[in-house]
Amino acid sequence: MGKVRADAGPFARRPDNSAFKQQRLPAWSPSLTPYTVLPVFYFLALVCVLLGVWLLITVQNTHQLKIDYTDAGACATCAEMRNDPTKAKMNCDCVINFNVPKTFQGDVFIYYGLINFHQNLRRYIKSRDDDQLVGRKNSLKSPSSYCEPFAYDENAVPIAPCGAVANSMFNDSFTLTYHPPAGAAVNVPLYRKGITWYTDKNVKFRNPSTNTTLQQAFQGTAQPPFWQKPVYELDLDHPNNNGFINDDLIVWMREAAFPNFKKLYGILNRAHTTFSYGLPEGNYSIAINYNFPVQYFQGRKEVVLSTVSWFGGQNHFLPIAYLVSGGLIFIVAIVLTAVYVKVGRSGKNMEE
Amino acid sequence: MLVPWRGFWNPRSKAPGQEEERHVKANDRDYNERFTYADNHIKTAKYTFYTFLPINLFEQFQRFANAYFLVLLILQLIPEISSLSWFTTIVPLVLVLTITAVKDATDDYFRHKSDQQVNTRQSQVLIKGKIQKEKWMNVRVGDIIKLENNQFVAADVLLLSSSEPYGLCYIETAELDGETNLKVRQALTVTSDLGADVAKLADFNGEVVCEPPNNKLDKFIGTLYWKDNKYSLDNEKMLLRGCMLRNTEWCFGMVIFAGLQTKLMQNCGRTKFKRTSIDRLMNTLVLWIFGFLICMGIILAIGNTIWEQRVGRNFWAYLLWDELLSSAVFSGFLTFWSYIIILNTVVPISLYVSVEVLRLGHSYFINWDRKMYYSRKDTPAEARTTTLNEELGQVEFIFSDKTGTLTQNIMVFSKCSINGNTYGDVYDEFGHKVDITEKTPCVDFSFNPLMDRKFRFHDSSLVEAIKLEEPLVQEFFRLLALCHTVMPEERSEGQSWPLVYQAQSPDEGALVTAARNFGFVFRARTPETITLYEMGQPVTYQLLAILDFNNVRKRMSVIVRNPKGQLKLYSKGADTIIFDRLEPANEELMYTTSEHLNEFAGEGLRTLALAYKDLDEDMFDEWMKKLLFASAALENREERLGALYEEVEQGLMLLGATAIEDKLQEGVPETISCLTLANIKIWVLTGDKLETAMNIGYSCNMLRDDMNEVFIISSHTMLEVQQELKERFSSSQDVGKTDMYASDSVFEETIIAECALIINGHSLAHALEADLEQILLDVACLCKTVICCRVTPLQKAQVVELVKRHKRAVTLAIGDGANDVSMIKTAHIGVGISGQEGMQAVLASDYSFAQFRYLQRLLLVHGRWSYHRMCNFLCYFFYKNFAFTLVHFWFGFLCGFSAQTVYDQWFITLFNIVYTSLPVLAMGVFDQDVNEQYSLRYPNLYRPGQLNLLFNKRKFFTCTLQGVCTSFILFFIPYGAFLCAVRDDGSHISDQQSFAVTIATSLVIVVSVQIGLDTNYWTAVNHFFIWGSLAVYFAILFAMNSDGIFRIFPSQFPFVGTARNALNQKSVWLVILLTTVVCIMPVVAMRFLKTDLHPTQTDKVRLLQQATRRQGPQEQNLRRVRRTSSRRSAYAFAHQQGYGELITSGKNMKVHTSSTSAVPSSSPGRTHSINCNTLRSHTTCSSFQHYNLGHCMF
């Protein structure tokens, strides 16, 4: 192992006197002394508690309303229809009334929530073809095997978008109506576009390039078996919100990490004078085009209205977690101080 | 091809191992080629360029870990269970295989190079009647080769003739057995007559029939058939490969075994692979982890079965998977394998490679250490094995050889007592004794042109006495110049010291050299004369008889006739022996001398008493006749001679005494006391005599006068040994009791029961029997010092084995000679003293350096650091992998046990090999809990290693538990936060990909902070790696989440934009911060509490070190080790019997003398002397069957 240098002198094999080779590299050797550890503990406790308090105050100023409509009121009949295989394809609408007790100030976001829907199953998550969704012609015509059994329909026509994720896309639609104490009901205007990540809409999802119509681009593909309409007709109102770059599809395709999740449906359009400050308190009704079956997996469906703060939506977990951690760190800091004062400082254990 | 002469015998089908008898015909290549004997080409390299890849891969996949990952890779190719892409396993696997392959290839390259170097050495071969130069590799069996002085023997050769009379030839077998003394080989008379006559040699067509190749270095049986005669051959006629020709101008030999079939190469079995205790523990732990992995797999598989039945079945219709996964049990089965794949990172693939890298780094640090470099011999320390470093931090027992290890094996004439006056001490002007150091002025010997310049003497009064021509002083040195068996050699080339002595024992050499410098130069000898230059005047003495040394006599005498015609008997020997044979008139002188002897002995010097006697002519003639008669006797020859010697060695006149210093290696007592403070027990195992060994024990501070008891066990029967041991045990236990209450604070010297055990070889043989070994061990372990003397190499190994077997402690053996090879190989760690002539111990060793004192640094600094680093490394490594992997386990409960990964697959691929490997490697390579000065100053810091405190099963549980908790926090805090989180623009963030990025980022930050906590010594490299790893993590994260790479491989990098969209969220950073704080603070609190409440010695010393650094460096006085002085009578006479006879027979004289030509070549006397001459080597050789020679370079 020892390197023998070419020049043979009396000290030819003497190792170099470099700091590295002699393990004398200048170094900083910190250690856990009371003077460093205790202040850090107090400081962190303070930071955590302060953060917790701040977050808590912020969260208190946000609003959230959840309406479970799975089998609530008028929707119970729809739920039963979905249960019945013979009527599975029939359209069903229902209306649910609810009350907003306090004005939702600022931007209001409308989500649909699913309970107990496992979007995070391995085989489910993998059942998609990103090559296809980015508009590659090859993948459009021959979807990846991961999409099986939703790659080809019974006629061996390739499905676009393929895979279980796209196939199971949430397809209820909502129309929100405000019933002011006086006057006629006002339809709550929603932005149904711009609800996705910029990268998803502009990078991850692209339509197959085409000089003609979108329909032509998707020619030779079939719609997913559970879908009622082909992918190029998802949004008839906005022609460029169709195909793979449909916002609802994109939102759905970002699989949730947990079985209970909510996904953005629309954002309140505050251009309307009634809603310029947000969602005023009062009575509302929501008309639901009820399509998505959940009773198979004992799931629930809900509509969530929420405002957001600087750190996101209404989230009680973080402030509480911070407060608890801050408190615990503080207690530990006191214990450590006590131990140090009683034992450490006297230096009994450090005696030489 | 010609039909082989023995019918259908096909040489190719016969493996070399099956060879039953070897037939070799000289000068007949055609004949010899029929047998396909190995040629002289050697190959120790394992691979060639083409076979490297297949063979190396095959070897690598035999390792459990690699095979395991291969299986995983195959599993991942099955789509139904593939939960991870194939690249997550193949990338680390390929990396691991490549690193190992590169290391193997480099090793093999060096082997190729050394093979090449050996194979292309030049040798002179007799081909077609002419001597031609050939490369070693082209030498064939049956060739006759010519060897010249100082050349290595190229193959195992039958000596045919030599330049010396009687076909004698001298060899040095240092490369074979480490012995540096010369050995004699003699050719058969018939062949030695061939001389250097090339024509005759070319005509020589003898056939040798002999044993097949074997590894017995001391045995050879064969027969030479030549000219219708049979001559039996034995080992005394063989020159083995690896020997070096000495003092012989040339010789011719016939190659019998070549290349790989030589005895040297046959001894080259692969070195036994040593593993450290950490290695074994690691293997156990990996198996446990493997079991744990299977358990997790089973739990999750059961979970999956239940989930599929309860919940998942409702999804079947919805997701249309019913046709494939119709059965929940089958789904569970598949899930099991999927989880095995996902969770495989708990068994860390990079662990083994990282550990190897660490050890390699530590080995380089040993090689590079200037403080273990010995400039005088230009020898740096060398870690020859790169796999044992951390065990150096756990050594509990050191077994040390004495000669050449503790001592330099250099004898120095240090003092003498002549006629009641002592010489040798130096006094200052006030009459105080001065310690002799390097700087003490030496006596000027320039009056003497023949002096030996290396000789140093400090007391000028002796030279004054010589110059004053005091008769007794002259007689004293005359005796030293006459009474010995040294051979002089005048070298023409060396101008500075033309006269060189070939002494058989270093003691004699020292005495003769002393006489030489004091003006009594021993210049030449013939069998019958000795020529001295007495103060420049040549004087020739007639040598009449040598009364040789043996163990019983403990003295030797010569009888000479000086030019004046006086007959004189000069005698030197052990003081007690000589004193018994003195003339009564000497009594007063005897008392004074005896006092001086005690003084000398007290200083650890080896003493001899000198005496002379004037002989009466008539009486001598009569005695001589009896002697001749006795030496011709066939029966009881030895006894008769002994009696005659006894008769003449009576009534001696005492001249004085000599004191020879057996020079210790530098710093030996200090090293030993320091290692003792580190609670390392040092046992000395030596082949030397009891007295010598004890002497060295005292001078090394291992034995002290204030010791409670020194047990000496030297019985000859089993029962006696048993009896003695039992007695010792009970008495040592009493003493040992005080030991129990000794405090073990760092800053106090531990009080250890002061007992010592000294046991000799005979007793040891009995004590090592199965019934007694336990009690031997008990006694030995209660003693502070254990010295075993007169032990054979095999016994050394047995002692080591005994301790290894019963104490479960790490043993280290250190030695320099071939007789230490067995113990070096047996012990957990073998250390060889390099820079000496013999190489064998070094070749067999794991570490080598030039000085015993470096052991202190090797163990207390390198070993301790290595152990500390390795343990911290392992703890962190297991922690990190558990924290990383178990997140999947928790996620299993939320994703229907579907084996969905939490992280991005690329993250899984790169986590261990890119994101977290370098900081921990830097910690493992550079970390220093306490710097080297403090490591040496507080040997107690070595304790934790011996007690195995830093990494054991408990520690493993602690760190894996920490990993499990971290993974729990890492998963559930983001889970809680993400359950209802949205981005600040209202769009969702609780998707699987954002969750993955958040957890991965938290994980990388948490483990980076943790390594920061674990790093005690932040060098620039540590900073660079830790910060660099974090930077690299974010760089790679953003690169893999970038648009560009997505556009190229959309399906391989589906995380496009996730990093951007997640990490620009304040909530995500709040989650990461909280996770980090919650994961780290408990650890900090625990550590702080631990150092506060139960500080370890390391903590204390660290604190002290830091306090000192703050105050600036202070000079601390290291404990000085005093040599105790006690009054003991010591005697040493490292003489060998029989050399005298060789001298008087004239065998080893270059000058041909007619008077000695009549000695028959097979006389018992000759054989006897040669046998005795090689006495030492025999003990060595016999044990060679038990061990192999490490690397063979020949």
TrEMBL record, chain A:
Its main location: membrane. GO terms for cellular component: endoplasmic reticulum; Golgi apparatus; plasma membrane. GO terms for biological process: phospholipid translocation. It comes from the Eukaryota. Keywords: Membrane, Transmembrane, Transmembrane helix. Pfam families: CDC50. The keyword Transmembrane applies. The chain crosses the membrane at residues 35-57, 320-341. It is found in: Membrane. PANTHER family: CELL CYCLE CONTROL PROTEIN, CELL CYCLE CONTROL PROTEIN 50. Belongs to the CDC50/LEM3 family. This is Cell cycle control protein.
From TrEMBL, chain B:
The chain crosses the membrane at residues 285-307, 327-353, 873-894, 906-926, 956-975, 995-1013, 1025-1049, 1069-1089. GO terms for molecular function: ATP binding; ATP hydrolysis activity; flippase activity; magnesium ion binding; phospholipid transporter activity. One of its GO terms (cellular component) is plasma membrane. Its cofactor is Mg(2+). Residues 842-1096 form the P-type ATPase C-terminal domain. InterPro entries: ATPase_P-typ_cyto_dom_N, ATPase_P-typ_P_site, ATPase_P-typ_TM_dom_sf, ATPase_P-typ_transduc_dom_A_sf, HAD-like_sf, HAD_sf, P-type_ATPase_IV, P-type_ATPase_N. The active site is at 401 (4-aspartylphosphate intermediate). CDD domains: P-type_ATPase_APLT_Dnf-like. ATP binds at residues 401-403, 508, 549, 572, 606, 686-688, 790, 796, 819-820. It is an enzyme of class 7 (translocase). Its EC number is 7.6.2.1. The keyword Metal-binding applies. One of its GO terms (biological process) is phospholipid translocation. This is Phospholipid-transporting ATPase.
